[in-house]
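call fold(seq) -> C-alpha cells
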Amino acid sequence: MSSSLFAADLNSVKTRISTVKKYLAKWHKTSDQKLILDSLIILTEIKKDLKSINDRDEEYESIKQEVYMLFFWANKSKVVISKKRRRSTRPLINIPPLERPKKLTDAEVNDAVILAKLLSTEPKKVVEEFKHTQDFTKNNPNAYYESEYMYRDIYFEHPESNLAEIANKYANSINIKIIKFEQEKEIKTNNILNNISDFEKLYTYRKFGQIEKKLKDLYDQEKDKITKHIIGHMIKEYQNLNVTMKAIDQLIKNKKKNPISGRLIGLKFNGSIIGASEKSVSIKTKMGTVSLPWKKVNDKQLADLITQLSQGVDVSYRIPLAMYKLGNAYEAFKIIYHKILRDPLFATKLGIFYFELLYHFRLDTTKLVDATIARSNKLAKSKDIAGAIKILTKCLLQINKTKFQYDEVARIRKAINTLGK
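ret:
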C-alpha cells in the first residue's frame, strides 16, 4: 500500500473517530441511547477497516488503541443508560461477601477445551466482554495496564461466572509483565532525566514547566521509538504538574472560609495557608504572613496539600494525575473514579493514565491492608481483640467503596472472622 493511500485510510478513520466523539459527547448531555448504539456500529466498522491496513506505524498503533478503548467505554456507557441509574459512591459495608464459583486450577485456566466449553455456556454478556478483551490484548500486546484492567473488570463485574475466574488469572499473569515493564521504564526514565541539565534543581523548586520544555526538546531529537514514547508520556506528566502548580493559588482561595493548616506542608507552628505563587506558599500566622519556598515542601506534603485543596471541588483531571505523579495514587484515583461513575466516557480523556493509576491504586490498597492486618495481629497476640477489630473495621470502612477493592475487603473480613479463634 502506498504511503499516500495509507494516510488517506488513516484520515478516514480519524474523521469517523471524531464523529464518534461528537456522538458520545452529545449522549452525555441528552442520554439518547441511539447515539451510543450508532457509535458502537461506527467503531465496529473502524476495527474491521484497521485490520485491512498493512502499513502499521506508531500513529496507526495509537489510533487502533484509541478505537478499542472508545469501544470499551461506549459499552460501559450503554450499561449505565440501559439500567437508568448512576452508581453510588456510598460505602458498601452491608453487601454480603462475594460468592464465587469453585476456583479453577492453573491447568484448567489454560486448558483450551475447558475455555471453549465455558464460552459456549456462560451468559452472552460475559462472553462478549471476555472475547472483546481477548481481541484487544491480541491486537495491543504492549497495552499491559489496559489489558489487566479489562480482565480484572470482568472478574469484579461478574463474580458468579467461571469466566470471571479465568479473567482474574489472566489479569494476574499480566501483572508480572507490568512489574518487568515498570522496572525497565524506570531505568529508561532515569537515563532520560540525566540528559536534562539542572533537573534536580528544577524539580526541587517545582519548575515543572521548564522540565516540560526540556523534555519536548529531547523528544524532537530522539530517534528510538520506545524512548520517544516514554518521553512523550513524561511530557504529559510534567504538563499535569505544571498546570496543577498554577492552579494552587485559586484552589487555596476557594478554601478561604475553611483554610488549611500550614502544618500540612511542614510548618512547625500554627498558621493558615492563604495563597501561593510560582516560588512559594503564603501562610498567615499570629506573627504575620510568612512565605515558605516550594523547595521546602516535599512531594508527599505537596500531594497532601493538593488532595486537601481538591476536596469538594470539581477539579481538572490533570490535578489528580499530578497527585499520582507525586506519589498519592490512592487519593488521586478516588477523585477520578467519582467522575467516571457519573460519566464513563470521561476516562477516554485520560488514556493510559487511568489504567496505570488504577493499577497503582490497587497496589496502595494492598499495602494498606497488609499493614493493617499486621497491626491487628500484633494487637491480637497481646490479647487486645477489641483493638484489633477496631483498626480492621476502620480499614474496611476506608476501602469498601469501589469494586476494585472487593478482594482486599474479603481479606479484611477474613481477618476479622479469624480473630480469637
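Residues 162-194 form the longest helix (33 residues).
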